[in-house]
Structures are given as C-alpha cells and as structure tokens.
Amino acid sequence: MEMSQYLEVFIEESKEHLQACNEQLLELEKNPEDLKIVNDIFRSAHTLKGMSATMGYEDLASLTHQMENVLDAIRNQKIKVNSEILDVVFLSVDDLEAMVESIAGGGDGKRDVSSVVEKLKLIEQGKSPAGALAAAETAVAIAEPPQFSAAKSSYDEFELTVIEQSNEQGFHAYEITVQLREDCLLKAARVFMVFEVLETTGEVIKSSPSADQLEEEQFDHEFTVTIVTKESIDDIQKKVMKVSEVEKADVHAISVEELKKQAADVEDSTQTTVEDTPVLAEVVDITPPEAQKDDKKAPAKQSSNKTIRVNIERLDILMNLFEELVIDRGRLEQISRDLNNQELQETVEHMSRISGDLQNIILNMRMVPVETVFNRFPRMVRQLARDLNKKINLQIIGAETELDRTVIDEIGDPLVHLIRNALDHGVETPEERKAKGKNEEGNVVLKAFHSGNHVFIEIDDDGAGISRDKVLAKALKNGIITEQAGAAMTDKQVFELIFASGFSTADKISDVSGRGVGLDVVKNTIESLGGSVTIDSKLGQGSTFSIQLPLTLSIISVMLVEIQKEKFAVPLSSIIETAIVKESDILNAHNQKVIDFRGKVVPLLFLKDIFEVPVSEQGDEFYSVVIVRKGDKMAGLVVDSFIGQQEVVLKSLGSYLSNVFAISGATILGDGQVALIVDCNALIK
Amino acid sequence: MVEEMTADLKLIVFQLKDKEYAIPVSQVLSIEKVEHITRVPGTANYVKGVINLRGIVTPIINLRSRFDLEEEGYNDHTRVIIVAVNDMEVGLIVDSANDVIDISEDSIEPSPEVVGNVEADYVLGVTKIEKRLLILIDLEKVLNVDDIPGLSGNTEE
C-alpha cells in the first residue's frame, strides 16, 4: 500500500501524541499515584505504536512497545513510579521525538535505541535501571501477579460500589469471557454484537481490554465483560453464543466480598513496602467516576468534532491573496473619493466593510494559542532545574491566549532565553533560598494575556532580583556607560542595560546562560517583531520580564502623514494623539526643541531632517505633530500634514535594504506607490 | 571557467554613458520602465529608493552612481533591470537596455587592468562581438552589502 499520502497525517499525529505523553508524564511526576494519567499516557503510546507499525517504522514501534510495557506495569501497579523510572521514560520519549523528527525531515526514522530499550526492560522486570537492585521493589513486583489470577479483571472502588449496589437491588454481577473464533475477520463487529446483546439484558460496567481497544481490534481473540443483570447465567451464555463466530462464552458470577478481599490483598502487600498506598486508595476512589465518564464521552466528542486540518501553506496563500485585495481596496477607496460618485462610493464602502470582516476571519484563522510554544517549557524547566540543582515550580497561565502564527514562529527562542535566564540567574539555589527565609522551591510564572491590540507575555520569578549596583559596575567595566550617566539612571534604565550586547552579570559562566549573548538577541528579535521588552525587578524578591507583542504582523493600522511631497506611515499602535502646535509654543531646552503637551515636556523630532527630505516648500507657523510613545517615553514627530488613517499591508524593504534606520518596512498605497513605515521605537531613545 | 567547453551564454546588454555592459539573462527577472520611486532615507547615494513591482517592494539602485559615473535625468530610454542575486531582488537603473545576444563562454577574456577605475572591481571580463566591446559585470560584487557603508549595520546616529 502506498503510505506516503498518510505520512503527513502520521507525523502530525505522532507529534501530538508525543506532546501529550510529555505533558502527562510531567503531570504524573507531580501525582505519581494517579493511575488515570498512566492510562492516558498508555493510550497515547499505544496509538503511536499502532500507527508507526502500520507505517513500517520498526524502531519507533519497538521502542514504543517497550515503553508501553513499562507503562502497563505501572498501571497494573506492578511497578511504582519514581523519578528514576520517569527519567528513562522521558528519555525514550525524547528518542521517539527524534525519530519522528527524522521521519518528518525525510529520513527513515531509524535510531539506535538499544540502551533505552535495555533500561526499559530492566524497569519492566522490576529492577532499577541504574542496575542497583532495589530489593523491596522486586519483592513487590514478584509478589503481586498472583492476585490478578482469581478474577480476570480487577475492579476499582467505583465499580465495586456499582456491583454492590446492584446486588442490593436484586441484580447479579457476572463476568463473561468471550472467545472469538481464530478465523474471525471482523473482530470489532463481533465485539459490537456481543455488547449489543449484553446491553439488552443488563448493564455493562466493565470490559477488559477497554471498549476503545476492543473497537480498534487491539486484542487477540478473547475479551472479558462484566455486566449486572437480572437474568440467569445460562440465559446470558445462550444469548452470547448466538452471535456468530463466537467460539466460547464463559459466564460466572462474581461477588463483592470476594473482590473486596482481593483488593485488600493488593493493598496489604503494597503497604508492606510502600507507605503511602492509602493515598493511592483515596486517589483511585476519586478519579475513576470521571475516568469512566470520559471514556464514554470521548468517542461521541470525536464524531461531533467540527474542525478540519488545513495545511498552513494554504492559509499563507490565502493571506497573501487577501493582502493583494487590501491594496486594491485602498485603491478603490481612493478612486471613489476622486470620482465622487454616490453609487460607486456606497458600493466601495460596502465592499470595505465586507473585506474588513473577511480580514478578521482570516487573521483569526491564523491565530494559534501560545500553548504551542509554551508546552515545551515544562520539560525544559524540569531538565534545567535538575542540571542546576534547583527546585523550580513552573506555572503557566493563559496558554490559550492566541497570537498570529507568524509571531508564534518567532517568539519561541526569545522565550527560551528568558526562561533559562530566570532559572539560572533569577532563582537561587535551595540553600540560598532557605537562608533568605524563602520557600526552597522557586516559582517561575509564565503568563500570557491580551490587552488592546497587543499580547503580553510575562516571565515572573521570585528569585534574587537584579542588583542595580552589580549591573552598573559591570556596565562601567564593559564601557557601556560612564560613571556619571550611571548615577543618574533610574532603576528601569539600569535594568535595560542587561539587554546591551556583551553583557552578563552572572558571577560564573554556566552552560545554561551567562555568556552575554542572548539577552541582546532577545531584545532584537522582539523589536523586529514590532514588540518590546521591559524589566521590573526588586532585589531579593524577583524579576518580571514583560514582552509586548502585536497581534499580527501582516496587516496594521497606520496614520499616513505627508512630509513635503513624501508620504510616510506611522503605526497607530504607537500613536497617542495628533496635535497642531503653534511655532511660538515651541520651547528650547539644550538645543532640543520641546513642547508642553498636557503638562509633560515632549521633545520634538523633525522627520524632515531625520529623513533628509528634500525641501521644496516652506511651512507656515503651525506644526502638525504626531505624539508617539515607546513605553513611558514620548516624542512628537513633526510632519507637514496628516492624510488619514488606513489599514495597510506590511512589507519588507527586501533583503538588500535590511537595516535602514527608523524605517521598519514599507507598504503599497492605493495609488500603487510605496510608502515607508516609520519605526517609532528606533526614534525614541 | 573560461577554459571550459564551449557553452552558450545569453546576455542582456545595456548601456551606461558610452559603454555597453552585459549580465547573464539567468540573473534577470524583468526589464521595467522607471516608475515612481519612493526615496528611502539614510541609505547610500546610489540607492534611489524602492518601487512597487507588482506588489513586491523592490529596492532600486542607480548603476551610474554605483560606478561613479555622473547621474543623468531619466528619459524614455531609461530602464530598470530587475535582477535576482542570492535571494536579493534589486532593480538597476540603466540608460537603456537594448539587446539580448548569445556568446560562447570561451570568448570572454579577463578584463584589462585599468588603474584608478572603480568599475574595474565589478568587471568579470570583456567580450568582443564584431566591433562592440561588452563589459561583463559581476552582480554579486555590485550588490555586495558588506562593503557598502550605510546599507547594512546602519545603526543609530
């Protein structure tokens, strides 16, 4: 069979399953007793195994198989979860990821996984992967299996309660083991028929393997169903046997007392070695009803899922086409204004409204939750915390916040830098934290939220904070500032120094960070995205890095202004307001012309001079000023006249002109001409 | 490369002042008339600005000033040759673009050493067709951003 057409879907889904594994594993690390999580991981791993085997990626399948065995042992409570085991499982997930990556990159997905497989096998056998034999553990592993032989399925508290209650109401609980014929082709169909029969006689409360697995034919020829019913054993057996291709149906009654005794046995034997098993009993007590419900709901949810997968490329093409349309819309608007024809104007206005709606929809379609970037951080933080011997609790808030895909693609690396920075320089070692009277575990909060036309991402740590003196001393040493300048700086200005290139205050250089390359790159990347970074820090209490990002990069609202005969566009996002200022109201301060604007002194920047615009006509005594801001700093851009507000498509100047001062890009106006977009961030220092 | 087997090379021939220059057709995307050029401030004097080339913002340089020849006003013959080199798309303003010719590669001779001539840096070689002397130019060098002050690394102040 030709598999290549499924390859893309396979890669996508594998990535999703691996991500799910990663997330659930981290969850499991926090709640080692929660078997529901193990089940989830198992399910992901199992699907992955099935898919990769079908696609013919043997290494992938065999490693997943081994991992699955370990997970199976965990969920059957043969092995207890500890960080050592999780490390190995994480390792194997890493290997799986690498293999999927290799397949995605056109490789064959082969990889030497023997060492990991070996470790997994050791774990499965109940031995410590490091080779150190934990006697107690093995004892449990060996001691437990017999308990599962009495009843074919093991029952949790919830199921026991159901059986108990139905007994009280005169129902019987039966365990039915159905064996299908060896040559049975449509196993899933037979299973379905058996279930249908059983559901008419009573209520199915459990099946082993689970209904999902049965549906996917993930069983040999035998499965076990537990039902509660009022009918007799014989009747049920006869009914089941009527389903064709059923070889054998064993029905036997089960009693609650017996099951309870078994459950107690399990607990007894685990208690001897594991002290916190009572917690396990509690956990099991709470979660299964949900798990049960989830299981039943899941298939229904899937069928009503109203989403489709669309290749990102197609969305990009759609966006490009729409951008062309926006340019033409601008042109039409201008033509209709010039012609001053009532009907034409109405039509154009209507079209503008519709294309505005269309724009919203297209932009929304390209929105991706920041989760896609955030979800790799828990793993990274876990690893880093281990490398650094620190205890870190990473909290993620607002992962559902959406951003344009173009921004998402770029934001990952800067965030990695900032988080590494927070872990390495921010949060102190447990000993230091203890000495300072803080909780040993450091908190790092990653928060994303919308505000206006921007998305904010904050990285907050409760670590040591930034030392003003240290930063200043370092900046002096590296010749970034002079002593006088340093003394006059506000704390915020001092903190911004750490974004200067070649700057690092870490006392010792570590693998993680501290080479002084990084924060300046972070700043540059974010500014090139049209965003900004600010730092807030209190010595001893922690720091907050706040990143402000535009929602989208491709279509922005601008104010068009005219300087002599040239047109420039100023992004609306940085404009506070516009004003007309009389020449006599302009003050001089140290060779800098300023105006008094609502009680604030705002420096004036004459774009005519900055952009060396050829002067052909003299202005009058009134100046048109666009007040723009960067953070809490303001400036007044002096132009000749305001043209108006417009939505424009942001275009780059081309790689030949990649770094022009104070110009962030260009756009094509309605008349087909190019207007440059002013970069207010570069103008305000 | 000169010694290689006889291979045909298609060249676009254009004129600057009184000399004829040539670039391989493979590097040329299109030839346009001069449209409205939007000036880009803070760039080298020969960067005339950007144009809207069917929806793509394309930088334009004046080849005359790039070669340190005196600039002249644009007229009906003035053309913009859009070239693509190393993923860069740039328009070159030339006096006129008037010919496409085929030459064999081995007819290219190394450029004569001319002292004190700026354009010599960008000359790949010369070729003679009947009585015309064509100067082959190296676009990569012409467009090399690194040795152009005020193009890249155009930092603050």
Automatic annotation (TrEMBL), chain B:
<dbReference type="Pfam" id="PF01584">
    <property type="entry name" value="CheW"/>
</dbReference>
<dbReference type="InterPro" id="IPR036061">
    <property type="entry name" value="CheW-like_dom_sf"/>
</dbReference>
<dbReference type="InterPro" id="IPR039315">
    <property type="entry name" value="CheW"/>
</dbReference>
<feature type="domain" description="CheW-like">
    <location>
        <begin position="8"/>
        <end position="148"/>
    </location>
</feature>
<protein>
    <submittedName>
        <fullName>Chemotaxis protein CheW</fullName>
    </submittedName>
</protein>
<dbReference type="InterPro" id="IPR002545">
    <property type="entry name" value="CheW-lke_dom"/>
</dbReference>
